[in-house]
Amino acid sequence: MAKPTREEIAARLKGSAANANGKLRKVHDLTQRFKAEPEPDPLAGIEPSDDVEADITRETAALDEGFRARMRAENNRVRTATDSEHWVALCFRTREDKEKFLRLAGAETGHPLIEIGDKYLDGYEVAARIGIDMTKEG
Predict the structure, then answer these.
(1) Residues 6+ apart with CB under 8 A from 103
(2) Binning pLDDT at 50, 70 and 90, where does residue 33 land?
(3) Which residues, listed in sequence order, are joined to residue 43 by a DSSP beta bridge?
(4) What is the rounded distance in angstroms from the CA atom of residue 59 to the CA atom of residue 40?
């Protein structure tokens, strides 16, 4: 497999933790994409009618579904947050060896890993920097 060019790496980074110029953003900016969107209003689109009993039934059913949808989303969030099989750790004998690795990995493309951190790194960004396309099956 041929090593990606600097331009290919920059293009891949644009969809992850980079801005439109391919320059890396701050960690704070990266964490913004993990924040949840507000929940939709379960009563949106329910128009009142002249039948109060029917209105209450429709509104109660909509609220019930809203709570159930929120519970499903929360269950998925907890499952994802507590899944211990989504990360990897690398160990080195010394801090200097770790930092050397982070400086050199990706350096040939001009995007060394040390630019995105020295401990916790976004796996998708690391993949892009070392030439792995995570959108393809494989």
Answers:
(1) 112, 113, 114
(2) low
(3) none
(4) 14
If you search the block for the tokens 């041929």, which residue do you land on? 2
| Three-state secondary structure call for residue 18 | strand
Distance from CA of residue 113 to its chain's centroid? 18
Q: What is the pLDDT of residues 44-94, one digit of tens each?
A: 999 999 999 999 999 999 999 999 999 998 999 888 888 888 788 999 999
Q: What is the pLDDT of residues 103-129, one digit of tens each?
A: 999 888 888 999 998 889 999 889 888
- Render the burial of 80-117: b for 16+ CB within 10 Å, e for the rest: eeeeeeeeeeeeeeeeeebeeebeebbeebebbbbbbe
Asked if residue 6 lies in contact with residue 107, where contact means CB atoms within 8 angstroms, the answer is no
Amino acid at 84: S
Distance of alpha carbon 4 from alpha carbon 96, whole angstroms: 27
